[in-house]
């Protein structure tokens, strides 16, 4: 979803904020706030959620805790927040997969436009193409040649059908005719475990998710899916440098609440999240992990 489309979504969400301020929790927050992450621990969405939650605990004066509700490519977590009480005590981390799910998954148990109120974007991030070190290919060009020579026998893992990691692999197939086979998992962490053990050969992962394993040598990075190199991976070529300029993938990570969450609470959360992201130490930490605040 581009910025213009997302702004339109925000404007549409604003029409839902019709409850008068008198119905809002005047002492908000007066108890623990839950942040639902629809994916497993260790992925980019989880990393951002936990960092923001830590600082929101300080600024809101009440615990802000992360709850990973994994399954169905994010649908279980998204649906649980759509059905939650719109009182500001249940938040959702959203990202590109949330925005595109309606175009890929039939009969979702919620309406992504009507059942949520958008709160804020926290960060954007490109992806990185990573392989098991045992893979002979040392460059994207060599990997393409290898995959074409073995149609259907090179496996790419994803965090679930319809997720950005899945679409990244399919985009690579489309623009290179690599003919890799998709293997869906319940979250990026599960993919990485099998990638490092050699059960799958490649993954198009968000940078923060794969970065520790790249730095430790357990994975090898072939390409960053952006038009420039990442500060976190300065030695890894960009997509144009790797010879596949069509492989531009950058996704956003943000926060939402159930529809009809009172406007004063949404506005408070927006201010607090923006303030957290602007903190020098938070901004620095995000950039070090390949995220752009």
Could you please describe the fold and organization of this structure?
- The strands form two sheets. Strands 1, 2, 3, 4, 7, 8 and 9 form a seven-stranded mixed β-sheet that branches. Strands 5-6 form a two-stranded parallel ribbon.
- It is built from eleven helices and nine strands.
- Helix 2 crosses helix 10 (263-278).
- It has helices at residues 3-14, 44-60, 75-82, 96-100, 140-149, 164-176, 188-197, 207-216, 239-242, 263-278, 280-288; strands at residues 33-37, 64-68, 90-95, 116-131, 155-158, 181-184, 202-206, 220-224, 250-258.
- Strand 5 (155-158), helix 6 (164-176) and strand 6 form a beta-alpha-beta unit.
- It is an alpha/beta fold.
């Amino acid at each position: 979803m581009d910025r213009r489309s997302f702004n339109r979504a925000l404007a549409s969400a604003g029409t839902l904020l019709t409850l008068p301020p008198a119905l809002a929790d005047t002492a908000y927050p007066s108890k623990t706030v839950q942040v639902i992450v629809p994916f497993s621990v260790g992925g980019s969405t989880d990393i951002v959620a936990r960092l923001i939650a830590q600082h929101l605990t300080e600024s809101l004066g009440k615990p802000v805790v992360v709850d990973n509700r994994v399954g169905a490519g994010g649908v279980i977590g998204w649906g649980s927040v759509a059905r939650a009480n719109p009182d500001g005590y249940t938040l959702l981390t959203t990202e590109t997969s949330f925005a595109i799910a309606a175009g890929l998954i039939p009969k979702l148990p919620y309406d992504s436009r009507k059942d949520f109120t958008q709160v804020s974007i926290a960060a954007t991030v490109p992806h990185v193409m990573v392989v098991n070190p045992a893979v002979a290919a040392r460059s994207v060009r060599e990997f393409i040649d290898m995959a074409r020579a073995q149609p259907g026998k090179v496996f790419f893992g994803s965090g679930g059908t319809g997720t950005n990691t899945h679409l990244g692999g399919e985009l690579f197939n489309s623009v290179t005719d690599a003919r890799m086979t998709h293997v869906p998992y319940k979250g990026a962490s599960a993919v990485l475990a099998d990638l490092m053990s050699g059960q799958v050969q490649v993954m198009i992962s968000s940078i923060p998710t794969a970065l520790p394993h790249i730095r430790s040598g357990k994975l090898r990075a072939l390409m960053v899916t952006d038009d420039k190199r990442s500060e976190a991976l300065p030695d890894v070529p960009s997509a144009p440098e790797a010879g596949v300029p069509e492989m531009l993938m950058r996704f956003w990570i943000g926060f939402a609440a159930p529809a009809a969450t009172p406007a004063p609470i949404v506005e408070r959360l927006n201010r607090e999240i923006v303030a957290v992201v602007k903190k020098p130490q938070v901004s620095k930490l995000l950039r070090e992990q390949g995220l752009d605040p």
